Amino acid sequence: MDMKGKVVLVTGGASGHGRQYCVELFKQGCKISICDINTDAGEELLHELMKQGGTASSVIFNPCDVTDYMQFEEAFQATISKLGGVDIVVNNASVMNDRLWELEVDVNLNGVIRGLLLAFRFLGRDRGGPGGIVVNIGSSSCQNPLISLPVFTATKHAVAAMTRCYGDASHVNLTGVKVVAMCPAPTPAALQGDARKRLLSGEYEQTWQRDVSKTTPLKSEHAAKALVEIIRKAPSGSCWLVENSKAPSEIKMFS
Ligand SMILES: NC(=O)c1ccc[n+]([C@@H]2O[C@H](COP(=O)([O-])OP(=O)(O)OC[C@H]3O[C@@H](n4cnc5c(N)ncnc54)[C@H](O)[C@@H]3O)[C@@H](O)[C@H]2O)c1
């Protein structure tokens, strides 16, 4: 797939991996719609991409909370009117904190459902749209469960299951929207922070240490290059583990 001129909407695009996805996709010639609740970081990235040659018709920032369907819908509408369409949606916004488990489910799972349903509505061929690609960001916990973060792990398994279902030919033949998942390993920030702040019980701390003891932190630059490869090549319905310094490898969760 030639990325040049493709319009990509990235949720949680203002910071973390999402920021680097925006930077890399912009370098590849894509138009970027940054969607995030963090307005300061979103505006800062918009400014940065403008300095790198972006214009009002190639990069925008939408203040957007993926737990709010109306705001999310407005982000799609703004992207279509300002950038000329949406070709690729990256459902990346996420919370990794089991202490906030209701919010975690609403962002990581319901937010991805909202993103998928909006993609079908605006991109679906059965709704008069052009078709496209949705990349759902899961987690390496789909392959190696984070036993210390049961709710986070469950949301990411659900995302992988949904990718498998909506990515099946029976849906894609109807909508023309390919659905894939990328499952990154933990970031340096996730491994370095105070784990107790995100675990439901202080008793889980040793389990967290065991969960991540063999993990090499994933750099955002590597994750972003893997994302481009997955967009280009991954068959619909597939889920890809991304670890540092390695090529993406397919996770076979279901036979
Ligand atoms: N951090 C890790 O170690 C890790 C491990 C496995 C998978 N992942 C996945 O990779 C992706 C990116 O992770 P990250 O480490 O860059 O996360 P991060 O916490 O650094 O960034 C998440 C981004 O999402 C935004 N966001 C949060 N709630 C939002 C909402 N309601 N609406 C819109 N935006 C919202 C934040 O403002 C932030 O910009 C996520 O899907 C995450 O689950 C991360």
General description of the model:
The protein has 255 residues and is of the alpha/beta class. It has a single domain (7-242), classed as NAD(P)-binding Rossmann-like Domain (Rossmann fold, 3-Layer(aba) Sandwich). Helix content is 45%, strand content 16%. The chain is built from nine helices and eight strands. It has helices spanning 16-27, 39-51, 69-83, 101-123, 150-166, 169-175, 188-192, 205-212, 220-233; strands at 7-11, 31-36, 59-63, 88-91, 132-137, 177-184, 239-242, 249-251. Nicotinamide-adenine-dinucleotide binds next to helix 1.
Q: Brief description of this entry?
A:
With 255 residues, this protein is an alpha/beta fold. The chain has a single domain (7-242), classed as Rossmann fold. It has helices at residues 16-27, 39-51, 69-83, 101-123, 150-166, 169-175, 188-192, 205-212, 220-233; strands at residues 7-11, 31-36, 59-63, 88-91, 132-137, 177-184, 239-242, 249-251.
Keywords:
8 strands; 255 residues; Rossmann fold; 45% helix; 16% strand; binds nicotinamide-adenine-dinucleotide; globular; single chain; alpha/beta; 9 helices; eight-stranded mixed beta sheet
What does the secondary structure layout of this molecule look like, with pairings?
Blueprint: E1 7-11, H1 16-27, E2 31-36, H2 39-51, E3 59-63, H3 69-83, E4 88-91, H4 101-123, E5 132-137, H5 150-166, H6 169-175, E6 177-184, H7 188-192, H8 205-212, H9 220-233, E7 239-242, E8 249-251
Parallel strand pairs: 1-2, 1-4, 2-3, 4-5, 5-6, 6-7
Antiparallel strand pairs: 7-8
The protein binds nicotinamide-adenine-dinucleotide (NAD).
